[in-house]
Amino acid sequence: MASAVVVSDDERSTIHASFFALACACVGMVGVGVGTLLSPGVGGALGWTLHSLGWLLLSVAIIAHIEHLSNRLGRVAVVCGILAAVAQALADVPFALDPDRVLQMSWLNYYTVMWGVAGFLAAASLALVAVRKEKLMEQHIALGETGKFAVEDYQTTVHASFLTLMSGALACLLTGISQLMLINDGGSSALLAWVLLALSWVLTAVAIISHIEHLSMSIGRAAVWLGAAAAVLNALGAIPMFFDVTGDNSFGGELSWIMWGITCLVGALALAIVAMRRRAQDSRAAAA
């Protein structure tokens, strides 16, 4: 039976994402959040531009961390994640160029489809990670390993549980499906679409909370709970649309968008905490 070396707590608590990657993600989420709050549900050119740039910065954040993520999650899964963020950015670009396009159903359908595509890409990314985790587990079992992480394996181990990965994948899949159901305002399927969207964010919170122990050790419990709270807030943000599925009532639609903006800002705060934690780790390493 192969021997295993127990990984130190210092290694387990190390944040592998660079400060640059975390800062890009944080600023990106701020851009999306502020862009949304500037004019909920409609948005002027500035709001849509901030949206687009925010999603692009999120894709830059993933690219900046691509080597470590690829070693751990697999290159294809990481590329799918990048493409999901790019799809979100591309959804916003036409409206940044001409905000009046929000009045045209064809452009609204384009926006909805791109969000659906992003959801499917994110779902594929997480599903691929789950498959990778299963294969790694099978390899460890075949080698008769004890289950403890060997130092040389720690960088390639998928730490998230199957519950976390599949909850996240299902959440993204439901997001994609719900968006496609909302094409042409959704018709009779609109209510179900919004229910699925709310459920997707509840599942996102479940995915985060089910991985709380490992995440808390590396990025801190406050950041984890803020991430979960952001997901719950966005689930609550879908509720007004249960009673205004077509968005004809401006208050319901605006409230939903405001909740989305707040969700992004809470997520940005979580990322800022992680970035500061990473900076502190860098400072300690430099002083050692």
From TrEMBL:
Question: What is the residue range of the signal peptide feature?
Answer: none
Keywords from the named record? Membrane, Transmembrane, Transmembrane helix
Do the record's keywords include Nucleus? no
Organism of derivation: freshwater metagenome
State what protein this is by name.
Unannotated protein
Which stretches are transmembrane? Answer: 19-39, 45-64, 76-97, 109-131, 162-183, 189-210, 222-243, 255-275
